[in-house]
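Researcher: We're reviewing a set of sequences before deciding which ones to prioritize for further study. For each one, I'd like a predicted 3D structure that I can look through quickly. This is Replication restart protein PriA. If possible, include the structure in token form so it fits the rest of the review sheet.
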Amino acid sequence: MEKLFADVIVDISSEKLDRSFQYRIPDSLAGQVKPGVQVWIPFGNGGRTIRGYVIQVTDRPACPVEKMKEICRIAEDQNNINSRMIALAAWMRENYGSTMIQALKTVLPVKQKTRQKEERWITLGISRREAEEQLEVYRKKHHVARERVLQAVLEEETVSYSLVRDKLHVTSQVLKTMEEQGILKIRSRRVYRNPVAHNEQGGGRLRLTESQQETADAIVSGWDAGDSRPCLIRGVTGSGKTLIYMELMERVLARGRQAILLIPEIALTYQMVQRFYHRFGDQVSVLHSRLSQGERSDQFERAKNGEIQIMIGPRSALFTPFPRLGLIVLDEEHETSYQSETSPCYHARETAIARAGMEDARVVMGSATPSVDAYYRSRLGEYRLFELENRYENRQLPRAQIVDLREELRAGNRSILSRRLQEAMEERLAKKEQIILFLNRRGYAGFYSCRMCGAVMKCPHCDVALSLHNGGRLVCHYCGYETKSPGTCPKCASPYIGGFRAGTQQIEEIVKKRFPAARVLRMDLDTTRNKDGHARILSAFANQEADILIGTQMIVKGHDFPRVTLVGVLAADLSLNVSDYRAGERTFQLLTQAVGRAGRGEVCGEAVIQTYQPDNYSIQAAAAQDYTEFYRQEIAYRQLMSYPPASNLFAVHASCEDGALLDMAMTYLRKYLRKIDPEEKAAVIGPADEAIPRIADRYRKVIYIKHEDYRQLVRLKDQLERYMEINSGFQKIRIQFEFNH
Ligand code: ADP
Ligand code: ZN
Ligand code: ZN
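Model: Here's the predicted structure for Replication restart protein PriA, in token form for your review sheet.
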């Protein structure tokens, strides 16, 4: 049917984002009116015309057609940033199935009338020599916060106030006191003493190695030759990817365009940001999730006005409204935080590529362990692939060994610490080196496995681990398959079969008992609940206030502890046996990262990976730090089971307070899906309970649909949306769509 009506918003700079008005599209403009297009419309009764943005076109009128006014004409100035951001929101709505308002609110931050905050800078108020003496005093008195600032100012000369507050976690009170004592100066303008010397000192501009330079040159010459495909750099940690990003940014900036660098929040450390400040000075701005809406929109305003050229931040920095965006970089491309958990459930990589396409910008992604999806696309030629196999100066990667926990049991050791790990810990403690014990927990439900032979109970249809639920039921979260947990192992008949759960607290107790003299820190949700808890523990460990750090994935990302020479992965199976087709991928990534934590300094590190499945390819490849071998096996599994990226997977998540109503609705949805796809080209799986079947009194279920063709899934989604709109039975049901997640 022809799309005859346009929803228009007249004010995008305020909270009125959700006030849209509908207009008729005159025949003369048919086909030209699209989301993002700026139009002139009659407004109010006085015959006044104003400008507005089209956010949606539809064939269904929202009010009687006779009463509806007509769009006058299309505005002259079409290529403005607001138009482009609205077009991006429309793309997101279309591809991720949210409402247009949700998409707009994601893309355009609501502006609040706040006072423009000035960036402030900290410098020394005393001489360097005095400062060094003062630093010693702080060290002796254990004034760790003051020590951290002073150290930073000594190293950098000028540091950003907000960065010190947010990333070094120093309170404004402490800074004020230090200013009053004359130790620090706080100013609203950045002072460059001698920018060139400054750069050399901080190492902002390093000479690229040959392979780094080759990669950067190849990327740019591809661009110059008109190749606009996204680029993926697979480079082991420490191979200098960040340096390549900076090189590319510089070239983009030199052409009068701007750049966005996306980094998962957890990896957005002080050191990381400082490297960019060094090189690019105050052309750089940083976003993080602790900024208020107002502060965020201030930053966006500065970007719009051309005051800054580079924005660094997590997922949402992708929507920085640069007037001439030239480059989007995604660091740590594989990170799950690039996937939004709230509607629209967009993926930053896909959305970055879509935005770049609309604005003729380029996309570069980097990771030591690229997502299977991105690597698959590069192998298909959708992305250009660049690989850096060596660390800078060929620094050694740590040695990793796998310990078979089944052997431990056979040898009579029932502790979670294997004999090898205990030995290694003793050695390190004796040498006063530090240790990380890593619990790669993921998800909530436990799994069911045999301690004797390592067998894991899996769904016979989906080939993923079953989750253990109350009452000993084992459940598949894809298809809903259910079975009772067996009393003995179906493979080896051993009675040592059961649910597997392990907590950080338990482990802390075990470690303290075994190594009573060691100082132990624990980092998990409990110990980081209060503000700054996370950073406090990390800096205490970095300051060597403890010998052993025990924690979950929070501890293995983005932090450098040069004194850590041993990493123990306590049970690699914890992330391997999650009821999720990507469990192998996540395990490989987590283990590779964990192993990489050992031996960042001069001393070569060691990792011990404990597992009940020593033959598993994810574990073996991680121990060998061999990405391509992991990929080869993983993609074969995806192809065999038709999981993404070999096929496409569309999820319909539904929740409702009334469990019976939800059951019925999902059954209807399934029937409807069969009806609109009579040849069964799409595989419909479920409905099944979600991994967490009930949250906040709402029952939760999911249907999965697999199809080779992504567009067909989008078509099914559109039809489902219609079906649910028309049928009143779905009114009480909250639906969320997700593609390839
Ligand atoms: P990645 O982002 O791939 O993990 P980085 O860019 O962080 O790698 O580099 C890792 C370390 O090696 C950094 O401390 C960096 O300063 C150093 N390094 C990398 N390349 C060079 C180079 N060309 N010159 C000097 N130091 C380098
Ligand atoms: Zn067994
Ligand atoms: Zn199943």
